[in-house]
Amino acid sequence: MKTISPQELHKRMEAGLPAALIDVRTPAEFGAVHATGARNAPLESLRPEEFAKQLDEDGRQPVYVICQSGARSAQACEKLTAAGVGEVHNVEGGTTAWVAAGLPAERGRKALPLERQVRIVAGFMVVAGTALGWRVNEYFYLLPAFVGAGLMVAGITGRCGMAMLLAVMPWNQRA
Questions:
Q1: Tens digits of per-residue pLDDT, 56-97?
Q2: For 174, phi and psi rounded to 5 degrees?
Q3: Of 127, 121, 175, 113, whose CA–CA distance to 151 is shortest?
Q4: Rounded Cα–Cα distance for residues 67 and 14 (Å)
Q5: d(CA 166, CA 14)
């Protein structure tokens, strides 16, 4: 997978070179802050085949994919490449690196990043399962075990089921 630094991408965009900058975060995250010129296409609803067809109609151009830190955009790059989209680049460090570099960004209403939402829900489930296992029934200890197994799978595969579920929640759909 090809990568590009936010600074290099910005230089290309300022030079007027054709580029499609796609932000694959949730609409709420995108609405909070995004690189100027980015279009929102959430990973959960990204249809690579339709995207490839649209690029063919618009004339082939490089596609640059950005997310919060680079993990979701890497997944999107894999999907787009598999669908036959030609030149696909993952923006290194994502929106976090873009903003840290002082590059142009549009800001809106603050949103709680998806990664923090996952930590909050996982932590709550572990505490609740442990407390309920201790006070109510020992079968509640299965809840923290389930969360731990889910975190292991997410770490190994790079895909988090809880994040995918939280991404489609109504509060993450509002820009």
A1: 666 568 999 999 988 899 999 999 998 888 889 999 999 999
A2: -85, 125
A3: 121
A4: 21
A5: 35
In whole angstroms, what is the distance from residue 108 CA to residue 30 CA?
9
Going 56 to 60 to 61 to 62, the CA torsion angle's sign is positive
Q: Note if 160 is an active site residue.
A: no
Model confidence pLDDT, tens digit, residues 104-146: 999 988 878 888 999 999 999 999 999 999 999 999 999 999 9
Q: Among the options 33, 67, 88, 167, which is catalytic?
A: 67
Domain map of the chain by residue range?
2-107, 114-172
> What is the Cβ-side half-sphere exposure of residue 70, based on CA atoms within 13 angstroms?
14
The DSSP secondary structure of 81-122, one letter per residue, reads HHTT-SSEEEETTHHHHHHHTT--EEE-S----HHHHHHHHH
What is d(CA 22, CA 89) in angstroms, rounded to the nearest whole number?
Answer: 10
The CATH fold assigned to 2-107 is Oxidized Rhodanese; domain 1 (3.40.250)
The rounded distance, in Å, linking the Cα atoms of 64 and 21 is: 5
Q: How many residues does the chain have?
A: 175
Other residues' Cβ atoms within 10 Å of the Cβ of residue 64: 28
